[in-house]
Amino acid sequence: MSALWDTHCHLTGYDRPTDVMAEAATAGVTIVAVSEDPGQYRMLRTRLGRRPGIVPALGMHPLHAASFTPADLARFLRLLPDAPWIGEIGLDLSPAGRPSRRAQLRIFEAILSDPRATALPLTIHSRGAELETIERLAQAGASRAILHWYTGPLRLLDQAVNAGLWFSVNPAMIASARAQRLLREIPPDRVLLETDGPFTRHNNKPSRPSDLPDLLPRLAALWSTDKNGARNQLNTNQTIFFSPPTTS
Ligand SMILES: [Zn+2]
């Protein structure tokens, strides 16, 4: 059976990342280990990222935008040729992010204007800035961008789907009534999985990538199928997501 992918995990946020990695390997889960700045990416890649089942992602988290310098952005762009994934990047216009709006836009737009970045899989933060984020991803022609933990309005879903965007679903979304309403509207063939661990909870503990198989029955109920049907849908989605983008 092919692996399930946790497309957004803050591996460095756990006390014992190597335990998390070992459990994930046993559960058949591949981890995309996101970073919040280029320095963290380099550390991740060096210490953990060369092991099988771990894909380090190069990120600049929007909530740190105010503290990033032009040198940080230059460093990010320098590391691009080496990076297999991009994330976490994006926009956050929730009250926490609003003061750094301009800095966030500058960084996000600079990254999206680089075709080396938009050719890669991207895991994208969009809290409180869903429209701004979707529009920019559509303009940039990002072919493999995932809206991670989408919490925006229902009415923007069509626009995101038409832009070719994907959605990664985590345990917190599955547990929330509001997110369930959203999930019912997202086409099943655009869904991937994530934990956003350790920042979401599953069974009253911080989520771990090895929890992902527990989401299958819930997705199955949502999609009116059984566990195998949900698993097959996700396998198909992952295969399509990972097939090389077609150049037109
Ligand atoms: Zn995150």
Task: Give a nutshell description of this structure.
The chain has 248 residues and is an alpha/beta fold. Helix content is 41%, strand content 17%. The chain has one domain (4-241): Metal-dependent hydrolases (TIM Barrel).
Q: How much of the sequence is in beta strands?
A: 15-25%
Proper CATH architecture: Alpha-Beta Barrel
Count of individual helical segments: 11
Level-1 CATH class name: Alpha Beta
Number of spatially distinct domains: 1
CATH topology: TIM Barrel
Largest sheet: 8 strands, parallel
Written description of the protein model:
Helix 1 links the parallel strand 1 and strand 2. The strands form two sheets. An eight-stranded parallel sheet has the order 1-2-3-4-5-6-7-8. It is built from eleven helices and ten strands. Helix 10 packs across helix 11. The longest helix has 16 residues. The chain is of the alpha/beta class and 248 residues long. The site of zinc ion has 5 residues, from loops. The site of zinc ion (ZN) has 5 residues, from loops.
